[in-house]
Amino acid sequence: MNVARLLTLYERVADAPDAIARLRRFILDLAVHGKLVPQDPTEEPASELLKQIAGEKARLVRGGGIGPDRKHDVVASSRMSSDLRTGWHLANLEQVLLELQTGPFGSSLHQNDYQIGGTPVINPASIQNERIVPIDKMAVGPKTLERLSTFKLRAGDVVMARRGEMGRCAVVSRQEQGWLCGTGSLILRPSRFMDPRFLVLLIGSPFAREYLGGTAVGTTMQNLNQGILRKFVFGLPPSAEQRRIVAKVDELMALCDRLEAARAEREARRDRMIAASLGRLSVPDPETFENDAHFALGALPAFTTRPDQIKQLRQTILNLAVRGKLVPQDLDDEPASSLLKRIAAERNRLAKIGELRSGYLQSVGASGRLWTELPAGWELIRVGQVLLELQTGPFGSSLHQSDYQVGGTPVINPASIQNERIVAIDKMAVGPETLARLSSFRLRAGDIVMARRGEMGRCAMVSDQEQGWLCGTGSLILRPSRLMDPRFLVLLIGSPFAREYLGGTAVGTTMQNLNQSILLNLAMGLPPLAEQHRIVAKVDQLIALCDGLELSLAAGDDSRRRLLDALLAEALAPDDDLVPEEPEGPAAYERIPVQEEAA
Predict the structure, then answer these.
(1) Other beta carbons less than 10 A from residue 19's beta carbon
(2) 354's torsion region: left (phi>0), alpha (psi -120 to 50) or beta?
(3) Contact 520, 388 (CB under 8 A)
(4) pLDDT digits (tens, 9 = 90+) for 520-555
(5) pLDDT given at position 281
(6) For the chain, which end, N or C, has fewer CB atoms within 10 Å of the first or last residue's CB respectively?
(7) Strand partners for 180
(8) How far apart are CA 102 and CA 157, in angstroms?
(9) Across all residues in the chain, what is the average pLDDT?
(10) Coil, helix or strand for 70?
(11) What global pTM score does this model have?
């Protein structure tokens, strides 16, 4: 077993998303399996401790202080019995508790019994990180406290949540003596020969949480009963070893606290650096923008450690793109005003022959906050002015679950639109008969298919490969003018500005649901066609950089996770020297079979 080397190499895995949480679980796992501190063969074994506890309980039963035990056989689980340490003994929780009591029924403690400033009531929400944290509004007055006096806590009790996340518990200190156990909690009163702090780390360990979570009852919320808890089998250490384990856990958890604080500060610095860099791009200074952009795109990879940071970068890129801040303007380009006239002429021609609904053409009123200043050559319009057609997918009554089949023509519902790409889903497809019946909803190359339910702004351009696929009930078909670059429209709709507008004005109760008029009225800045092409090309280049960052981040996380797995596996392996005083030398690094982290 090599815990010291795990701590020595921990810096290499510290940025893994769950590294500190896993380290905490690992420490508790070691503790309850007797692998955290060395055994002392001169100590009185746990078998004698159980006899002392049994004698204490027998005296209390004879004196009427407690009721008799409910007999539960100790069934040796393979995980515990095959790995029991020297001096340890298998026991169930019934054997080490003097009393196990469920908090008062809800009918005994009503909402109107609570008052601010009274004696705290300890419900599950009050048990946080193995500590009891009183909540102001969860307290009762003297009369209620007296009526429920049998549920008052004593110093040395363990109070435990019996609802929600299993395993939450804390030792009652002298400060909390006399507080009240709430309806959602349990009182565990251990023998005076048992260290209550060991009981807390035992119940909070992964081993116990797995047992309690797997056997707890309840439908909408896990709910633990006494019978489940009493039967819990664990390895019981000698009394002196319990105290050493508790001390070592306290020491290592304090180390985890320091690691967590250091990581939080490191992440805060990174966030400030990224926010400052992206902020300079979002409100660009024309004189320094090129240098700011070069610096941000060059430096951000070194500071990017989380997916949400890459998402910020993507949004900044799109924001700059649709505001005309990503590529320089060219005064020789045909201005958007001329492009708009040609699109209007195309639309009028199609309207005359009955292929376009004239109501799409709309004027733009007062500009919003984004469009207070347009780049040279741009025009302020609404989306409806550049569309030839906007069509909602078939009604649900036209496309039933029974119409779907595997291996048919794909149907593009919102789930099929991922990262500005169309992804066919096997079970979302239809056969030739359904396709013919719904032929008016077939997609054409150059169309934009857009989700109208759920997260707003998801859309993708239909390629030649996807031509002929079917628009689903939860999607819209946008058919832009052939004089418009449809890829620019995809960028616009997916930009933070458009998502904010669409999300804020979308309708629906349980789910956002976008109607046509909302989308048609989305104001946008229309660039010259040549600039649209340049913007799209630049965005493709920068999004590829983001994709690379994401792959690198995922590879780094995977490498760190595998390294942590290797270190934890090695640390759990039996060894003559349980906890080395000094970490091993550089040769130890070579024995961990893990590839180097991605850059």
Answers:
(1) 22
(2) left
(3) no
(4) 989 999 999 999 999 999 999 888 878 887 787 777
(5) 63
(6) C
(7) 121, 152
(8) 13
(9) 83
(10) coil
(11) 0.60
Instruction: Please give the domain boundaries of the chain with CATH numbers for all domains.
Output: 44-237 (3.90.220.20), 336-526 (3.90.220.20)
Residues 534 and 538: their CA atoms lie apart, in Å, by: 6
What is the pLDDT, as a whole number, of residue 310?
76
Residues 6+ apart with CB under 8 A from 418: 458
Q: How far is residue 483's CA from residue 572's CA, in Å, rounded to a whole number? A: 66
Segment (H or E) for 478: strand 475-480
Please give the pLDDT value at position 196: 96
Instruction: Return the H-helix or E-strand segment holding 96.
Output: helix 93-96
Tokens coding 438: 């719904």
Cβ contact 422:445 at 8 Å: no
**Amino acid present at 219:** T
Own/partner pairs for 265-272, CB < 8 Å, 24+ apart?
Answer: 267/305, 267/306, 270/303, 270/304, 270/305, 270/309, 271/309
Please give the structure tokens belonging to residue 129. Answer: 């990180």
Point out which residues pair with 448 in neighbouring strands. 461, 478
Burial 563-584 (b: 16+ CB within 10 A, else e): bbebbbebbbeeeeebbeeeee
For the chain, give me the number of helices (H) and strands (E)? 18, 22
Q: What is the tens place of the pLDDT at every residue in 225-269?
A: 888 899 999 999 999 999 999 999 999 898 888 888 888 887 787
Looking at residue 578, its pLDDT comes to 43
Output the furthest CA–CA distance in the chain (Å, rounded): 102
Contacts for 85 with CB less than 8 Å, ≥ 6 apart: 33, 34, 35, 39, 235, 237
pLDDT of 569 over the 80 cut: no
Alpha-helix residue ranges (DSSP H) falling in 283-401: 289-303, 307-322, 336-352
Q: Alpha-carbon distance 398 to 116, whole Å?
A: 58
DSSP SS3 for 150: helix
d(CA 433, CA 420): 29
The SS3 of residue 526 is: strand
Q: What is the pLDDT of residue 592?
A: 33
pLDDT reading at 49 higher than 70 = yes
If phi over 0 gives left and psi between -120 and 50 gives alpha, with beta otherwise, what is residue 419?
left
| 135-139: long-range pairs with CB below 8 Å, 24+ | 138/114, 138/182, 139/114, 139/115
CA dihedral 468, 470, 476, 477 (to 10 degrees): 10
* pLDDT-derived band at 359, boundaries 50, 70, 90: low
What is the per-residue pLDDT for 479? 95
Task: Check pLDDT > 80 for residue 168.
Answer: yes
Dist CA 97 CA 72 (whole Å): 13
What do you get for the CA distance between the two ends of the chain, in Å? 31
Tokens of 285: 């200074």
Amino acid 291: pLDDT:
66
Residue 506 per-residue DSSP state:
-
Cα atoms in the Cβ-side hemisphere of radius 13 Å centred on 117: 0
Instruction: Look at 596 and 412; give whichever has higher pLDDT.
Output: 412
Angstrom CA distances, 291 to 294, 295, 379, stand at: 5, 6, 28
The DSSP H or E segment spanning 390 is: strand 387-392
Contacting residues for 230 by C-beta, under 8 A, at least 6 apart = 70, 72, 92, 93, 94, 97, 100
Please say whether the dihedral angle defined by the alpha carbons of residues 414, 419, 423 and 425, taken in this order, is positive or negative.
Answer: negative
